[in-house]
Amino acid sequence: MSKQYTIAPFSVFSLGALFFSQLVVPAHAAALMGFEDSAMLMTEIGRYNQEWMLNYSPALGHAIGVEQMRMSGKGEQATTITGINYTGLIKRWNLPSVQANIWFNGSVGEAKGQYDGFAYTPSVQFDMESTRLYFLAKARMIRAPGMNYDTAAVQAGFSFYEAGFDDTQPWFVIEAKTMRNNDPGLQVTPAIRLINKNYFLEFGVTNPWQGEGFAPRLNAMFVF
Amino acid sequence: MKKLLITLMLTAMTPAAFAVTTLKAEVNGMVCAFCAKGIEKKLKALPEGHAAFVDLKSRVVAFQLKDGQTLTDEKFNKVIQDAGYSVTKVERVNQTVADIQAQLSKSGKEGSK
C-alpha cells in the first residue's frame, strides 16, 4: 500500500526548500560552512535526489543549520528528510599552496514519504584542493526505519587556469557516487564548476546521459 | 631663505607625515576565492582599514591602514586565522594596496611569459 506523500512538518523550511530549489549547493563542495559569523546556503538539485541546507557558523569549525533532502529508490515513492544539521571541521591542513580538510556533517530529523520516522545522516568527508586541482571523498549514512540510502562519493577535478581573487574560475569536476537502493547504483556526473568569491555554481549531467534517463544536476552555494 | 627653509622642512616631514602603512601577510591554505572571502570581508569591517587585498596565487593578504590608525600584528593575524588560514609571515610596508596589487600583477605577467 502506497503512503500519501506529505510535506514534512517544518512548513517554513519546506517553503524555503521549494523556493531555493528553484535557484540551485553542493552537498559535496569542499567547504561545508562559511567563515565565522556567516551563513551559507547550499543546494543540490538532481533527478535522483534534491537537497538544500542553510547553516550558520558561530565559530571557526562549527556550523549549525537546517537541512532537507528528498530522494527515492527503485520504484519507490519519494522520502523527504527534514532535520537539524551540524557541521564540524575535524582537522585542517594549511600548506603553502594546498588546503586539506576532514569534516563531520550530519542531520537528525524526521523522514516522511515512502519511509517515516526518525532519520539520521552522519557523514565524513575528506577534501584536498590547490588553486588548480581538487579531490574529495565522502561517505554518508542516510537512514530511517526500513530505509537505507547510504552513499559514498569521490570527486576529482582541475581548473582550466589560475584566477585572481576577484575573477570567476572555471573547473571541470567528475564525480562517481553510489547510493544504496537507488537506480543507477553508480552515478557518474561530469560537471562544470564556476567559483567566484560570491558564489559557487556547478552544472553537470548524471548517467545515463541520453534518452529518458537524461539527468541534469545543479549545485550552488552562497555565503552571506 | 625663508621659503627655502619651509621647503626643506616640508620635504623632511612629508615621508613621515604621509607615510602609508600596509600590513602584508603570507598565508598558507588560501586556494579558493569563495572560501577566502571571509578574510576580505572581516578586514574591510575593521575601522582602521583603508583597503584590503587578497591574492591567491602569491598567497598574499594586504591591509592598508587609514592615516593615523594603528593595528597590531596580532589582531591582523587573528582575522586571517579566524577565517581558517595560517599566517606564516607579516611585515609592514610603506606601499599602498594598489601598489602591491600592481606589483603582483606585473610579476605574475612576467612569470607567465
Describe the structure.
The complex is a heterodimer of chains A (224) and B (113). With 224 residues, chain A is mainly beta. Chain A has one domain: monomeric porin ompg (Porin, Beta Barrel). Chain A contains 1 helix and 15 strands, in the order αβββββββββββββββ. By secondary structure, chain B is an alpha+beta fold. Chain B has one domain: Alpha-Beta Plaits. Helices cover 48% and strands 25% of the residues of chain B. Chain B is built from 4 helices and 4 strands. A 4-stranded antiparallel β-sheet of chain B has the order 2-3-1-4, with helices on both faces. The longest helix of chain B has 16 residues. Chain B is globular. Chain B starts with a helix and ends with a helix. The mean pLDDT of chain B is 84. Chains A and B meet through strand 4 of A and helix 2 and strand 2 of B.
Give the helix/strand layout.
The complex is a heterodimer of chains A (224) and B (113).
Chain A lengths: L10 H11 L16 E8 L3 E11 L2 E10 L7 E16 L3 E16 L3 E4 L2 E8 L2 E8 L2 E2 L2 E2 L2 E9 L9 E11 L6 E10 L3 E8 L8 E9 L1
Antiparallel strand pairs in A: 1-2, 1-15, 2-3, 3-4, 4-5, 5-6, 5-7, 7-8, 8-11, 9-10, 11-12, 12-13, 13-14, 14-15
Chain B lengths: L1 H16 L4 E7 L4 H12 L4 E7 L4 E6 L7 H10 L3 E8 L3 H16 L1
Antiparallel strand pairs in B: 1-3, 1-4, 2-3
